[in-house]
Write a structure and sequence with these properties.
Length: about 220
């Protein structure tokens, strides 16, 4: 399912394995930012708007030590996949040369013949706008591919450390081992999970202990 329980994840830092790849997210965002600027220079307004939206979405996930990454990782992976598909097609077709229009034989009555010529992918003689468009065509699939890999790996790591093993009741396990379970989660790299998990487990264990206490009226036994 596309809309998963990820939306119900609390706002907390992801596992340490995900935080260790934070620099890769920064590289992906830098490439997206460069693509956004190049598309503006090349007057590709629609492409620049799309790159800007993906850049803002990525910044939201990476900020505050990736505390919102668990909610949006899978959705971001799907969006990157769609963008990658539509960006890789122009790159494949135009990498060997771009087709450009030429106007020839303009008559006095205003009629003209329009021809198509094959130009190199990068050509200094074509000016800044042409080469900015070529560079944006090259960089956008790279950024989207990085986004797919990073988002899916982060989603898998978060799911692996948040879901209990099959056949195990997580609540019963936390009551039986109120101290060991948070420590095991912290050892796996779940940052901030030890304190909150331990408090919740101890509170549930205390609630179970108070259920068995005597709550009636006490009476003093007389000595005979």
């Amino acid at each position: 399912m596309l809309i998963t329980p990820d939306w119900n994840f609390p706002r907390a830092p992801p596992p340490q394995a995900v935080l260790d790849r934070r620099w890769q997210w920064h590289i992906m965002l830098c490439i997206l930012g460069a693509t956004f600027v190049l598309r503006l220079i090349g007057l590709d307004i629609a492409g620049a708007l799309l790159s800007g939206l993906m850049l803002c979405f990525g910044v939201i996930m990476v900020r505050d030590w990736m505390q919102d990454l668990a909610k949006y990782a899978l959705v971001y992976a799907v969006l990157c996949s769609l963008n990658f598909f539509f960006d890789i097609l122009p790159l494949i077709t135009e990498l060997g040369g771009r087709m450009s229009r030429t106007v020839e034989n303009t008559d006095s009555d205003g009629t003209a013949e329009v021809g198509m010529i094959n130009t190199p992918f990068f050509d200094v003689s074509k000016g800044l706008m042409y080469n900015a468009q070529s560079m944006s065509i090259l960089l956008s699939p790279i950024a989207m591919g990085l986004g797919i890999c990073l988002s899916l790996s982060a989603h898998n790591d978060i799911q692996r450390l948040s879901d209990p093993p099959p056949g195990i009741d997580a609540e019963a396990l936390s009551v039986a081992f109120p101290l060991q379970l948070p420590q095991a989660m912290a050892a796996e790299g779940w940052i901030g999970g030890s304190s909150s998990g331990g408090h919740g487990a101890r509170s549930r264990a205390g609630a179970r202990e108070t259920d068995g206490r005597f709550t009636g009226v006490s009476h003093k036994l007389c000595d005979h």
